[in-house]
Amino acid sequence: MEHFDVVIIGAGPSGACAGALLRKAGKKVLCVEKQHFPRFSIGESLLPHCMQFLAEAGLEPALQQQAAAHGFQFKNGAAFLKNDFRTAFDFTDKFSPGPGTTFQVKRAAFDKILADAAAEQGLQIRYGVTVEQVDITGAAQALLQVSDDNGRQYQLSAGFVLDGSGFGRVLPKLLDLEQPSDFPVRQASFCHIRDNISDPRFDRNKILITVHSSLPDVWFWLIPFSDGSASLGVVGKQQRFDASRSAADNLWQHVQQTPELAQLLAQAEPVNEAQSLTGYAANVRSLHGNRFALLGNAGEFLDPVFSSGVTIALRSAAMAVPLVLRQLNGEQPNWDTEYSKPLRKGIDTFRAFVTAWYDGRFQDVIFSRQRQAKVTAMISSILAGYAWDQANPYVAEPERRLNVLRELCLDAE
Ligand SMILES: Cc1cc2nc3c(=O)[nH]c(=O)nc-3n(C[C@H](O)[C@H](O)[C@H](O)COP(=O)(O)OP(=O)(O)OC[C@H]3O[C@@H](n4cnc5c(N)ncnc54)[C@H](O)[C@@H]3O)c2cc1C
Fold this sequence. Notes:
This protein is α+β, with helices and mostly antiparallel strands.
């Protein structure tokens, strides 16, 4: 049986980042990835906070070098559209320190760039290898049963296991850690398009979030790439979608019901088959246990609306690795107070904003004509991913501050 200091499940952003950081510390690390890269993944709009973790892990140079060749789009903010009201947040004008720009990426290429860069730093990645079973009851090591594409089954042992399996949710399923999300079951239908947009008001440096013209809890993402293509998706409660119709029909029907967006996309042509994802919000009872921790989507996933997924995935990797190193060194880090609670603090900031988006409170703020520069910078910070910066009052007390701000916006209107 082969033994590793750490086995990572999944070579997505969280797995690649954790692997690169562990290699920097000289650890013997194996990453097992069920699929073969490049493979499609959703989640194409990064937040600037991501760049901090990619730099820490030594993965940013590869991204910067290859961004243009893969059609990745420079991104400096988020634009919002509701009926004929347009507004935008510039991430370079933000409250928290840190990078203010990032990219909109095609995930197949992005994930491969990160995984290859981590492999160059010595991370062993085995593609086409699926984790089937784990035994984390051992005092000295964890055991994993894996199978490869040829049906060969074998065991691995590890001093620690990091689960970066995303929606695969390997350890939550195998260890019975799953807990339902507080959010209702929502669906997303999406595809890539050649957007053919000529409207000068459309800023390719920003993701565009459009609210459906008559259903305020239904919204669209339009994520432009630098090669003239874009990712388009619609999100709403599952009952808003007609199960008897295709993903493409559901997507374009909602677009047609939203005149400003329909007009913007009048010349758009799909470049791949639309697909749908349903019920992606997920949670767990615990983000850690004996010799394991959950990263990124294998832990909690909220909602796509503020593009927080990859940021949380990378941040979780950057927070977990120093604790793994200490544990491998014979210490006993307190995973609850040093990992779970601080990680969840930022997730809870996003949760407050996501909840307020769907119940309309945050939309009242975003689509208000009243803007105060300092408050706008604080909101920009959160939209740029800095949801852990306690110096930002909207992180320290998101719920109360949002409610007060909304009242101020409504009064001023
Ligand atoms: C509709 C929608 C839109 C989104 N939009 C955005 C966005 O704009 N911006 C953003 O930041 N996030 C977005 N997200 C979230 C984003 O997709 C995820 O948060 C992000 O990919 C999580 O990264 P990860 O590394 O945790 O997992 P993943 O990227 O999912 O990677 C997990 C890897 O584990 C592998 N794996 C799974 N099971 C096994 C197994 N048994 N053995 C071995 N390997 C396994 C998988 O093959 C996969 O490669 C969106 C999500 C949804 C649902």
